[in-house]
UniProtKB/TrEMBL annotation:
Main location: nucleus
Full protein name: K Homology domain-containing protein
Organism: Gryllus longicercus
One term under GO cellular component: cytoplasm
Compartments (UniProt record): Nucleus
BP term (GO), one: regulation of mRNA splicing, via spliceosome
Annotated Gene3D superfamilies: 1.20.5.4010, K Homology domain, type 1
Length: 332
């Protein structure tokens, strides 16, 4: 289909808007008579276009010029419920919200009604109405009542077309092969606003898969380039497994406080860190050339002088903070 032709999705969206307009128009019965008629004709035209895209095309009924006086013809087409008791003929004839029957009325010019036993959805109401005036048809077998009003020559053509189309609906078809049921489900999705064109979805999914494969291929090529030896663009070669990582980085917090009395007295608590005089937070990342120098630096004056200092004041109101202030009076 070319870009100038409407897509199935666009026609379905337009049909959904028309159905919404018709539902809103129902709040004003017999007010906008011509609007209702034009809206029904547009809905029938759009449904016809939608089904033609999906492979169904019906030739319009060609009628001769009117001759004679208008007349009314009626005919019953009985539904084979006894031969196929489990088949849903009523739903197949009417369609979602009666749209299948309305479409036939537009195409044939005949009024189509389902009558007889089993024609009502509410079975209790059907039993209550059976035998009452104007409900005599409930005593008859399930059938489709066709009515047309026109001149004799035109009415006969309309009735013949309507009987032909109704009989097509009365032939049971398996679920997987029933094209009419598929279209009715499609219409139901359009009415509910949940219809999405499967062909558009398939094209979109295919494009997404292609883009994903392209991105994956590019990422794999870049990974291979980075892992290859002697790759261009790097100033230094990658480190081999035998090359040591180098000196560690030591993150030192502020002065740690011993947590127990034993660790305070025997010096087994946390050792003093290296503090940076230029770091306002008292933290330093200190790289060391080797672990021997690190051990030498760890032997700070704090660790060597504290065990030999006078600790008698500890129990008399002196704490570690007092002793530190006495040792470094200018460091607050």
């Amino acid at each position: 289909m070319s870009d100038t032709n409407p897509t199935t999705q666009s026609i379905a969206d337009y049909l959904a808007q028309l159905l919404k307009d018709k539902k809103q128009l129902a709040a004003f019965p017999n007010v906008f008579i011509h609007v209702e008629r034009l809206l029904d004709e547009e809905i029938a035209k759009v449904r016809s276009s939608l089904f033609q895209i999906n492979g169904t095309r019906k030739e319009p009924l060609v009628l001769p010029e009117a001759e004679g006086q208008p007349t009314t013809l009626t005919e019953k087409v009985y539904v084979p419920v006894k031969e196929h008791p489990d088949f849903n003929f009523v739903g197949r004839i009417l369609g979602p919200r009666g749209m299948t029957a309305k479409q036939l009325e537009q195409e044939t010019g005949c009024k189509i009604m389902v009558r007889g036993r089993g024609s009502m959805r509410d079975k209790k109401k059907e039993e209550l109405n059976r035998g009452k005036p104007n409900w005599e048809h409930l005593n008859d077998e399930l059938h489709v009542l066709l009515t047309v009003e026109d001149t004799e020559n035109r009415a006969q053509l309309k009735m013949a077309r309507a009987v032909e189309e109704v009989k097509k609906l009365l032939v049971p078809v398996a679920d997987g092969e029933d094209e009419l049921k598929k279209r009715q489900l499609m219409e139901l999705a359009i009415i509910n606003g949940t219809y999405r064109d499967s062909s558009v979805k398939a094209v979109t999914a295919s494009a997404c898969d292609e883009e994903w494969r392209r991105i994956t291929a590019v990422a794999a090529a870049e990974t291979q380039r980075l892992l290859s030896p002697g790759m261009p663009g790097l100033a230094t070669p990658m480190r081999s497994a035998a090359t040591p990582l180098g000196a560690p980085l030591i993150l030192s917090p502020r002065l740690p406080v011993p947590t127990t009395a034993a660790s305070l007295l025997n010096g087994s608590g946390p050792q003093a860190p290296l503090l940076s005089p230029h770091d306002p937070h008292g933290l330093i990342y200190a790289p060391y050339a080797d672990y021997a120098n690190y051990a030498a630096l760890a032997a700070s004056p704090l660790l060597t002088e504290y065990p030999t200092a006078d600790h008698s004041a500890v129990g008399h109101g002196w704490g570690v903070s007092h002793w530190l202030h006495a040792r470094w009076p200018d460091q607050r």
